[in-house]
Specification:
Layout: H1 2-6, H2 9-12, E1 39-41, E2 48-49, E3 54-61, E4 66-69, E5 72-85, E6 91-95, E7 99-101, E8 105-112, E9 118-121, E10 123-132, E11 138-145, E12 150-154, E13 168-169, E14 180-187, E15 191-199, E16 204-212, E17 215-222, E18 229-236, E19 241-248
Parallel strand pairs: 2-12
Antiparallel strand pairs: 1-3, 3-8, 4-5, 5-7, 5-10, 6-8, 9-12, 10-11, 13-14, 14-17, 15-16, 15-18, 18-19
């Protein structure tokens, strides 16, 4: 029985949900399950950093697959989530549903400000319903899926303690990246910060700005529109301009 759940572990990575919360999210219509192996979008999420606000919406589609369970062929009908435990302190998971039918798109949301560093193996308590050949849906479970979701909360990095009274730009992470990355900065005063991204020809590819209170902050950068290659970023505050380089890998 445990093997049945492990076959779903890739898709269950996206089942960030609780029965108490309801996410105000909408499944991404561009997320497609080509070939029906199941799918979740995006396939790479921004890193989670302690004491930094995090908000990520994901879309997932359960596979309409057949499974051999002790000689009987079952087709996955639906999965119900009873509860989710061992969530990083300061964060919550929510979903637009607590039950998921095979072949349909759903969305979930991971949000909050993590307060503790560490590796958190999420425990998802599931009820799995499947249909044997020529029969009606039956429950295969309940199960504890303790292998699908692991969240690593990293500590803030790159701040020079000898320069806490100065504006600092933090290392881009991850770098190289394939889809999402973060450009961090530390400001000792209230300010407005601008991020600009240029290609190697000097053409402006992205621009955004935000207000920032004293402390560490990050721009969550979505590089889906960029072709693989090297890019330059420019972070500007009210007094100075800082530049750096990062790489889009694919």
């Amino acid at each position: 029985m445990k093997r049945t759940i492990q076959l779903l572990s890739t898709i269950l990575f996206a089942l960030f949900s609780t029965v108490q919360l309801s996410a105000q999210c909408t499944p991404d219509p561009a997320c497609e399950d080509i070939g029906e192996p199941g799918q979740y979008c995006p396939e790479e999420f921004p890193p989670v950093v302690r004491d930094a606000a995090y908000d990520q919406v994901m879309t997932f589609i359960l596979p309409a697959r057949e499974y051999d369970v002790q000689g009987t062929i079952y087709t996955l009908d639906s999965i119900a989530v009873d509860s989710v435990k061992n969530i990083p302190p300061g964060m919550v998971y929510s979903s637009n549903s607590t039950g998921y039918a095979a072949g349909k798109a759903y969305c979930s949301q991971l949000a909050g400000t993590p307060t503790e560093k560490g590796i958190f193996a999420i425990e998802i308590y599931l009820r799995v319903f499947a249909t044997p050949d020529g029969g009606s849906p039956v429950e295969l479970g309940p199960f504890l899926d303790d292998t699908s979701v692991v969240i690593t909360v990293n500590t803030p990095s790159g701040i020079d303690p000898q320069q806490v009274d100065e504006f600092q730009v933090l290392p881009v992470a991850p770098n190289p990246f394939s889809e999402f990355t973060q450009m961090g900065f530390y400001t000792p005063y209230d300010d407005r910060i601008k991020l600009q991204v240029y290609n190697i020809l000097g053409e402006l590819m992205h621009e955004e700005s935000r207000g920032a209170s004293p402390g560490e902050h990050r721009f969550d950068f979505n590089g889906n529109m960029l072709l693989p290659g090297s890019y330059f970023y420019r972070i500007t505050n009210s007094k100075q301009l800082y530049t750096g380089k990062f790489i889009k890998s694919k």
